[in-house]
Write a structure and sequence with these properties.
Length: about 400
């Protein structure tokens, strides 16, 4: 009689109306973006492979370069999806890779210090226990033993490194803060971007940038990707990768970096176009007026059976809810309308609808069931061209 548990026909877009998928809009408005980024990845393959294959000679530089190349690849999908929050975090990492690359290339003692910190990964992994209690006993024992084994292999080295570099070495491989290092290696133009991106890493209040906006007299909040941040991440990530490549070319001058370098520069030159596209998409997705808040929906079947739903209009999703404790006037009105539905089904069940719906706003609220099933709004609510919802005019309440 009522729709069974099922996912919505399409993944709900929590940012705007149905069908406004960000990645589709980016692909449609900026087809050149995927082409340029893909071209950069293809152009960079010979240099990336050649450089990493010589990792035994330039171990520290190879470790930094591999992480930077991996983050550069990830940045592509984040920018294409409009996932600004993840993108700025990746861009921040690329800044650190650029500084680390310049640092380890500067002299062999810095490269050695960088690699001496590697063993602490085993220590931190050994201390990581989240989720272990959910494993079967045998699996938990195996995981712990693997981690302890990894730590035992480097334990004596870590003691020696702490004796050599000091206790602060455990927290950071470099004794200098990043700001001073950017100045030292003439990369200080990146520090403002690093500081901005750090807001999202540390969960600072400023990290809400791109997720809220004043619309009329209300502050509207979006949950999910912050499209507004994508342009910042784009130019920061590309410029930082260019610096990483510049330093890698110094380490291995026999490899031709120009195809990769040229492709990166083409991406950098296209940044204004990306800014225009993403700003337009962001404006389109933000509503012109504050969106409606969650509301209550009562579905009444032809035999009078009632089911309550918690309704999120923005996500176009309904979740089964516990029946509310109604005031006497509301209870009487619900009973009266239910009887009317049973007496005159033709009035309420046009277009093969199997139930009539009553939408409440602030005056009746429900709590979703703990195991409540979710259905798409189209499975319950009437569409605009179909029969109107039941109104509450008879007792002076406004609502459809």
């Amino acid at each position: 009689m009522f729709p069974q548990s099922s996912p919505p026909p399409d993944t709900p877009d929590l940012l705007s109306h149905e069908g406004a998928r960000i990645e589709d809009r980016v692909a449609d408005r900026a087809p050149w973006f995927g082409f340029l980024y893909h071209n950069a990845l293809i152009a960079g393959q010979p240099f990336i492979s050649g450089f990493l294959n010589k990792g035994d000679v330039h171990r520290a530089a190879s470790v930094v370069f591999n992480q930077a190349s991996s983050d550069f690849i990830n940045l592509w999908s984040e920018l294409a999806d409009g996932n600004g929050r993840s993108a700025v975090r990746t861009a921040r990492s690329l800044i650190e890779h650029a500084v680390n690359m310049a640092d380890v290339v500067s002299n062999s003692s810095r490269a050695e210090r960088y690699m001496d910190h590697l063993g602490f990964a085993a220590e931190f992994l050994n201390e990581f226990e989240l989720g272990l209690d959910t494993l079967k006993r045998s699996e938990r024992r195996k995981a712990k033993e693997q981690r302890r084994h990894g730590l035992r292999k480097v334990a004596s080295q870590l003691v020696g490194h702490l004796g050599r570099y000091g206790k602060g070495f455990r927290a950071s491989w470099s004794e200098m803060n990043l700001k001073d290092r950017t100045v030292k290696f003439q990369l200080d133009e990146f520090y403002p971007a690093y500081r901005l991106c750090s807001l999202f890493i540390h969960g600072a209040s400023g990290g809400e940038l791109g997720l809220s906006r004043q619309i009329g007299d209300q502050r509207v909040i979006r949950t999910g990707p912050a499209i507004h941040l994508c342009p910042f991440a784009y130019i920061t990530g590309i410029r930082a990768m260019q610096e990483v490549l510049k330093q890698a070319s110094i380490v291995e001058p026999t490899l031709d970096s120009s195809p990769f370098s040229d492709a990166l520069e083409n991406l950098a030159k296209a940044w204004p176009l990306y800014v225009e596209v993403m700003n337009k998409i962001d404006r389109e997705i933000w509503p012109d007026t504050p969106p409606p808040p969650p509301m209550t929906v009562l579905a009444i079947a032809q035999n009078g059976t009632q089911r309550w739903y918690w309704h999120n209009p923005v996500a176009q999703a309904l979740i089964e809810a516990e029946p509310p404790e109604l005031e006497e006037k509301f209870r009487r009105s619900v009973d009266e309308i239910t009887q009317e539905v049973k007496r005159n089904p033709g009035r309420f069940f046009s277009n093969d609808r199997r139930f009539a719906t009553v939408t409440f706003f602030d005056h009746v609220r429900v709590v979703p069931k703990r195991d409540g099933r979710m259905v798409h709004a189209s499975a319950i609510l009437l569409r605009p061209h179909e029969h109107q919802h039941i109104r509450w005019d008879q007792f002076g309440q406004s609502g459809d």
